[in-house]
Design a protein that fits this description.
The protein is mostly beta strands. The chain has one domain. About 0% of the residues lie in helices and about 55% in strands. The protein contains no helices and ten strands. The strands form three sheets. Strands 1, 2, 5, 6, 7 and 8 form a six-stranded antiparallel beta sheet that branches. It is globular. The two termini are about 25 Å apart.
């Protein structure tokens, strides 16, 4: 298991294969959220990947995913809301 700040990337090995689970992050209020992604098409026809956090591991609107190398998790200090943005 690899720990990243308050977030965790979990990998479980079973019979020689790896089963990946969603990246999870616990905010300052102690609530754990799981990262998901969804592929959408913008009005101009350009495909876009949307990243979002949910309180459950499974969600109908997206698939669980790991945090991409070029992204970082930010937390709003007022309400604990998590967002994913590009690293600067």
């Amino acid at each position: 298991m690899t720990c990243l700040n308050r977030g965790h990337k979990i990998e479980i090995t079973t019979n020689g294969g790896k089963l990946k689970m969603a990246y999870k992050h616990t905010n300052s209020k102690g609530i754990t959220y799981y990262l998901h992604k969804s592929e959408v098409t913008l009005r101009g026809g350009k495909p876009q990947t949307i990243y979002f956090f949910t309180k459950t591991e499974k969600n109908e609107k997206g698939t669980p995913c790991d945090l991409p190398e070029d992204r970082e998790v930010n937390e709003n200090p007022r309400n604990g809301f998590l967002t994913v943005s590009r690293k600067k």
